[in-house]
Amino acid sequence: MDANRPHSAESDSPGVDLLGMARRHWWLVLILMVAGVAGAAQFTSMQTKVYESATSVLVSPIGNGQDANSTSGRTKGDINLDNEAQLVTSTTVATDAAALMRSTLPPDVLVGNVRVEVPPNTTFLVITYSAGDPGVAQAGSHAFAEAYLRNREESAKAEVAARIAILNDKISQLNAGLTQINNKLATLRPNDPNRPNLESQRSTATSQINTLAGQLNQLLTTTVSAGKITRDADLPSSPAKPNRLLNLASGAMIGLLLGVGAAMLRERLDQRVRRAGDLPRRVDVAVLAAIPGRVKPRLDDVFAPFGAGGRIFNRLRNEVLASIPAPAGGDARVALAGQVVVVAGASRGAVSTVVAANLAAAFARTGAETVLVCAHLPDSLVDTASINRMLGVRAVPGLSDVLAGRFSLSSATQRAPRHPNLSVVTTGGTASAGGLLQSQALRDTLATLRERAAYVVVEAPSTATSADAQSLASLADAAIVAVELRRTRNTEIVDAADQLRRVGTPLLGAVVLPRLSAPRAGDEREQAPEEPTVADDMTTVLEKLPPKEKVPAKKDEEPVVTKRHRATPATPSSPAPSPTVPVPPKRQNRTFSITRIPTETPSENGADKRR
């Protein structure tokens, strides 16, 4: 299996990124949307209310050839509605409308409140008047429509009167000429050569007079109608401006766009890992396993073997075994024995503790002897995922005590009662442990554990706090980076991968966990009582330990067989049982407990545990 294969659980397409970004920053998008709606509501309340009222006017043609349509007119009839719309907003009509409205405003101001529309393929004009009062809007629309019709009618009547006067003048001139022709004809003889010419002129004049008389008769009988109001202005019940619904929708849309933009900016500036798919793309680290957000890691126990988290760590165990190359030749079972895997957190916190404990439990479920070595001191009390609480073992003695030479490795190795085939070496209680992880004692300890166990899982300190993870990784066969979502930064993962790769240890990839939270008081399991040590400089620690109490045994727990030995401050004596259970705060002789781990007994799968 290729350890550097990309994690394909999540797609890296931009659409999914955008949806994930909106889901992660939903609160920011929601806040800006609410702010946009609130701003739109405030803007709407500050705007002046404007009422609109409209009047529909049917424009009728007047007279013969009157109001002839121009070449660029929008209608094919005798009326140019573009000219008529301009006529509505003329100063003459505005002056007449102001008189009808009894308004003292100048005509130009009134014209600014008028809007004229021409519906397509009609001879209608829709005259709309806007005002801050509904009554004024109604009166203004009706006044402009009425003033327009009156102005058009007066103009038509004046034009008809002028045409009648012109026709009368022409008829009078023709009659005078006809009279002169008749007088000349009366003085001529019947055979006079000028008579035919005069008779022709008389006939022409008579014909013209008859034509003009017909036109005059038509004008005199024409009814002048400039048009009519088909739908009068009504009293508006609600303001047309501001449009509250439109403003609120616009504010929500603007807030949504600002929210998405702010989320994108925050996503760009935030260097924390938000999802497992970011690792291969941004930091070039493969993802071995990712715990879904719905699976909440517990800081007081490992995942159940058949639960969602347990199945994920079982698959992680298989991938780790497949990623570690076995030496050529020999028995594969023996070749894979004594493998050391280092789990280092890229950031501060307890993520490496959770990953190491669950991975060690997954190895132990195969029936092979597994040892979990804890070399990670807690960064703070809040971030502590205590191994003694998770696996039911004592906190001391531990690795630091072994490296300091105060305890033997056998006495510091404890069997996990709830997990067969799993032994634990806790961090220990020696305060002066600085530099011990770079000592030869650590190399000897790991070499001894390789002989005794099939798999050794080392919980290393975070690469963000010290260089101890490098020292441990140089002694291991493979390394894993533990990543905590919404806490670990991309730069920390890059630095962790660089540190582990520099020592030549194969970096298998990263295990991604959701954000860890401290366990509730009701969820914590009872811890095994801490036993005092025989170290001379541990007097202060012994004095602070509470008296030993009996812990009720659970059905699924394996009892820890302990024997109590009395020792002098100088040299530990031979083991001797002690009947006393309580530990007084201060006493002359100190006691310590040793957990015996059989080193020569066969394991459950028939293989010798000591290799």
TrEMBL record:
Protein localization: Cell membrane
InterPro entries linked to this entry: Bact_polysacc_biosynth/exp, LPS_length_determ_N, P-loop_NTPase
Keywords from the UniProt entry? Cell membrane, Membrane, Transmembrane, Transmembrane helix
> What ranges does the record list as Polar residues composition bias?
590-604
Question: Which domain of life does the protein's organism represent?
Answer: Bacteria
Q: Which residues form the Polysaccharide chain length determinant N-terminal domain?
A: 17-93
* TM region(s), chain numbering: 25-43
Q: How does it sit in the membrane?
A: Multi-pass membrane protein
Is Acetylation given among the entry's keywords? no
Q: What is its main location?
A: membrane
Residue stretches of biased makeup (Pro residues): 572-585
Question: Which positions are tagged coiled coil?
Answer: none
Regions of biased composition (Basic and acidic residues) lie at 545-561
Which Gene3D superfamilies did the record assign?
A: P-loop containing nucleotide triphosphate hydrolases
Region (Disordered) location: 518-611
The similarity comment for this entry is:
Belongs to the CpsC/CapA family.
Q: List the protein's name.
A: Wzz/FepE/Etk N-terminal domain-containing protein
